[in-house]
C-alpha cells in the first residue's frame, strides 16, 4: 500500500532538498511504499530547479511545478495541497509542510492510527504530549483559538485543526468537497470530514519554527478568512439541519 506525502513549496530554496530527503529517508527506513509530491507555486528562487534535480535521482519524487503565477487565481497553499492529493496514488495521504516545521517521527504515529480505525489523524501541538515548540505565542494563540471555536461550533473531537499537518485516507478527500484555496483549507477539511461522519484522531507532535526562508503567514488576512469560513460552514450545516454535538 502506497503512502503519498504532499508537500507545498513557495520559495523554499534552502528547505526543499533536506525536507524531501528526510521524508524519503523516513519512508525507506520504515519500509514504506511511498511517493513524494512536492507542489511548487511562484517560486523565484532555486526551489523549482532543486525539485527537478531530486526527481531525476529518485522516481518516487514527483514534483508538480504549477505554471500560473498569480495568487489571485488561487495558486496558493490550499490549492497546492488539493492538486497534489488529486494526483496522488496512495491510499493514505500525509500533508506535511515544506519549511520543515513538522516532526518526522510523527508520520509513523499518524500511519499507525490510520491503519487502525481512524480516517483522518492530526499531528497535534495542543493535546497532552504535544508542543508548540518555538512557535510565536501570538500565532499559537490564534491557531489554538481556531480549533477551540471549531470544537464548540462543530463538535470537533481533536485539538489542532488549523495546522495542515495530518494524514488521511484517500476516500475522505474523495467524499468531501473543498473550496478554500489558502490556509483555510486546514480547518475546512477537518470540519467537513467530521460533519461527513469520518473518524478524526490525533497524535502529539512538536512544532519547529522555520529556520530558513520567509513566512507566508498573514495575520489579519488569516484571522478574517477563518472567521468567514466558520460562519459559512455554520450556515451550511445549520441550513442542512446537521446535528451539532457539543463536546
Ligand atoms: N505551493 C505553495 N506552497 C505554499 C504557498 N504559500 C506557502 N506555501 C508553503 O506552505 C508551507 C506553509 O507555509 P508557511 O510560510 O510556513 O506558513 P506558516 O507555517 O503559517 O508560517 P511560518 O512557518 O511562520 O513561515 C510552506 O512549506 C510554504 O513554502 C503557496 O502559495 N503555494
Ligand atoms: Mg510554516
Automatic annotation (TrEMBL):
One Pfam family this sequence matches: Glycos_transf_2
Entry GO terms, CC: membrane
Source domain of life: Bacteria
RNA-binding as UniProt keyword: no
InterPro entries: DPM1-like, Glyco_trans_2-like, Nucleotide-diphossugar_trans
Residue stretches making up the Glycosyltransferase 2-like domain: 4-176
Keyword Oxidoreductase part of the UniProt annotation: no
GO biological process, alphabetically ordered: dolichol-linked oligosaccharide biosynthetic process; GPI anchor biosynthetic process; protein O-linked glycosylation via mannose
Coiled coil: none
GO MF term (any one): dolichyl-phosphate beta-D-mannosyltransferase activity
Keywords assigned: Glycosyltransferase, Transferase
Matching PANTHER family: DOLICHOL-PHOSPHATE MANNOSYLTRANSFERASE SUBUNIT 1
Family note: Belongs to the glycosyltransferase 2 family.
This protein's name: Glycosyltransferase 2-like domain-containing protein
Organism for this UniProt entry: Candidatus Gottesmanbacteria bacterium RIFCSPHIGHO2_01_FULL_40_15
